[in-house]
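One-letter codes give the sequence; the fold follows as tokens. Both lines appear below.
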Amino acid sequence: MKARLRADLRAAMKDRNPLDARVLRSLVAAIDNAEAPAVSQEQTAAVHHQFEHRSAEVERLWLTWLQVHEVLLQEMQERERAAAEFDRLDKPDHAATLREEAGMIKRYLA
């Protein structure tokens, strides 16, 4: 799925489609975040790494199709909730943009 999203992102950038490119970037980032391993309580943000020894590299988690689907579903639902809030605030243009983004994400869920 991530390879498909990245290919679609390249196509959107080539076609100069900023809305699609923005949404696809956020989807790839959301999957990347989900693939990040959890940090244990012993680890801190101030860990010193010796980059030449590859000590900063951590193996990514492998997500199942169901987990990737859940990430995309959450991204779509977040946009739908935000659109409803913009409707409540009487900002229909913002709501319409978010609904368009949610519709785009829905295509990847099918």
Remarks:
- The two ends are 12 Å apart (CA to CA).
- The mean pLDDT is 89.
- Residues 65-88 form the longest helix (24 residues).
